[in-house]
Amino acid sequence: MENLHDKRKVYDKSQLIESEIKQNPIEQFRDWFLEASENSSISEANAMALSTVEDDGCPRTRMVLLKAYTHEGFIFYTNYESKKGRAIEKSHKACLHFFWPSLERQVIIKADLEKVAENLSDGYFHSRPKGSQLGAAVSPQSQVIPNREFLEEKLKKLEKQYENTEVPRPENWGGYLARPYEIEFWQGRPNRLHDRIIYELEDLDWKISRLAP
To answer: Which residues are annotated binding-site positions?
Structure first.
């Protein structure tokens, strides 16, 4: 067994106090996201862990990319028939998690999910590199496949088929809007007395509270 007891660091880069935060969590997220995007040590500030609950009751978490955020919520794209897509269609809920270690910050978002309008999915799909479009069309995401060659052969056929024409967006591929009803902002602090500010949606207003670390 590898002993990891001594693998620890001191968190002392910033603070999160009530007098300085925004009253709307999307605005607070925007401020933190812009700082993360401008930080040279963070290569993908929009990388987020997406957790859904499967039929056996166990959560499954994977990394996806946030592609937009608005006053309504957070948008990402995926295969609707993937494991995450099937889980979302059953519960219409997910948890999003951002971790920016160089800023010693986390954001945890509980949200209700719905599909975005088809024209939004079309627009984003056709803004992607053609190789990514073909990859979405090729992959039966989360399904068992015989081998790597299965994908590569299918890709070759589609490359030839759409060599001089636009790749249509697959009907089973598109975006989700995650409408948040709870957002927690976590800022590392010394002595493990971290700052945790939670926003909870009550009717149309956000209730703001501090949680013990």
So the answer is: 8-11, 62-67, 77-78, 83-84, 106, 124, 128, 132, 141-142, 186, 192-194, 196
Q: What is the pLDDT of residues 9-52, one digit of tens each?
A: 899 999 999 999 999 999 999 999 999 999 999 999 999 999 99
Could you give the count of Cα atoms lying within 13 Å of 147 in the half-sphere of its Cβ? 2
Residue 6 lies in a domain: no
Domain encompassing residue 71: 25-118+175-210
- 85 located within any domain: yes
Query: Which CATH number is 107's domain given?
Result: 2.30.110.10
Residue-wise pLDDT tens digits, 139-176: 989 888 899 999 999 999 999 999 999 999 999 999 99
The set of catalytic residues is: 192
Q: What is the pTM of this model?
A: 0.93
Contacts with 117 (C-beta within 8 Å, 6 or more apart), sequence order: none
Q: How many domains does the chain have?
A: 1
